[in-house]
Amino acid sequence: MESYFELKKNNTNIRTEVLAGLTSFLATAYIVVVNPSILSQAGMPFSGALTATVLVSFFSSVMMGIYARNPIIVAPGMGLNAFFTFSAVMGMGITWQVALGAVFWSGIIFLLLSVFKVRTLIVKAIPRPLRYAIAAGIGLFITLIGFANAGFIVSNPATTVGLGPLSPSVLTFLGGLFLMAVLITRNVTGAILIGIVLTTLAAYPLGRWWAMEADPVISWQGLFSTPDFSLVLQLDLINSLQFAVFPVIFAFVFTDLFDSLSTFVGLAEAANLTDEHGEPRNVARSLTADAMSTTIAGLLGSSPGTAYVESAVGIEAGGRSGLTAVVGGLLFLPFLFLAPLLSMIPAIATAPALVLVGAFMVRPVVKINWLKMDEAIPAFLAMVLIPFTYSISQGIIWGFLSWAVLKVATGNARTISPTLWVIVAFSVLALVMQSH
């Protein structure tokens, strides 16, 4: 195991990797409940979608760990599941079986792009200032998600966002945030995991002592559940190839492509998971594993799988090899039977980890030359639009577009590679399709 995952080379050990895998799992485990709750609105059985979510997360993460040897959790993606339900099924009126077929075919396209190394070319075409900005933008995005999950930041009609009320649950979140920050500052091993566990224990009495809160912090929903395999192989492969469904396939391809690419690039830059050429480590294999995840998702009955930015939590906890992803993936499997237990880990327990990860991921911004404005402005736009639009792909699209515009305007069009011009063209196409 040590030689296969190159633990010594990565300056880690089995204990650290196991703890990191557990930490990553706790930060991403919410998807086991959230994904089926969204997919069920498309008419899919909740229990079947839950089983599919667990299976996709298990197979995909283990594949990422063993094949690509990267410490990145792969599971059905947030945003992609919303597009599946609200845009494809409810908006366009196609059946969920046809939508699953679209997921499968988008996975096949991913796979072809990966096999022929097109996706690797795309990674190498991303200018370094944009890479650094994407890493920081993802960090800010994760921080925003953490604050929102805790109820510390809420929507406000007057100011768009605002500070939420200091309820008992928010105060518990703040206690967990400061505790975790102190543990990290003092270099305590397993600081993030310890913080999640202690915050969960602190949150448990809230459901009893402050039972009048509108949203219970922890709700007990039993212990065991039975797997439901009713969605396996229910995709409609033929009807999903109709011309009317092509926009759905393209949207899956484009969104998942740039979400996964930017996640790999961002995590690599923030955690120094790069090869001797400064490129994301094992990027070709990582992208192939990501492509296989989407293909498997269509077969098993879920929205597309993608690399999870929350993997940064486990990476910050010391995870440096594929063993982290393998451990995280294996931890999903028991929840085929124990899914109700996930309700015992409230959002306010994992939210502090998400918030603090942002502090680690903004480090690369110091590498950006902020005095070279034709690079600084696109980097800035990519960085801020990721959290402001609540979309990684939107941030990177506008980063690419502004990069091309400013390079052309300053007479530096020759510095733009052919691959980057193709990316810019697809970015424009994606924006046009989104507006219709």
From TrEMBL:
What is the protein name given in its UniProt record? Putative MFS transporter, AGZA family, xanthine/uracil permease
**Source species of the chain:** Pontibacter lucknowensis
A Gene Ontology MF term for this entry? purine nucleobase transmembrane transporter activity
Q: Which InterPro entries match?
A: Azg-like (IPR045018), Azg-like_bact_archaea (IPR026033), NCS2 (IPR006043)
Q: Tell me the keywords, alphabetical order.
A: Cell membrane, Membrane, Transmembrane, Transmembrane helix, Transport
State whether keyword Chloroplast applies. Answer: no
What is the first-listed, main subcellular location in coarse terms?
A: membrane
Family, per the entry? Belongs to the nucleobase:cation symporter-2 (NCS2) (TC 2.A.40) family. Azg-like subfamily.
Q: What is the lineage of its organism?
A: Bacteria, Pseudomonadati, Bacteroidota, Cytophagia, Cytophagales
List the membrane topology term(s): Multi-pass membrane protein
- Domain of life, per UniProt, equals Bacteria
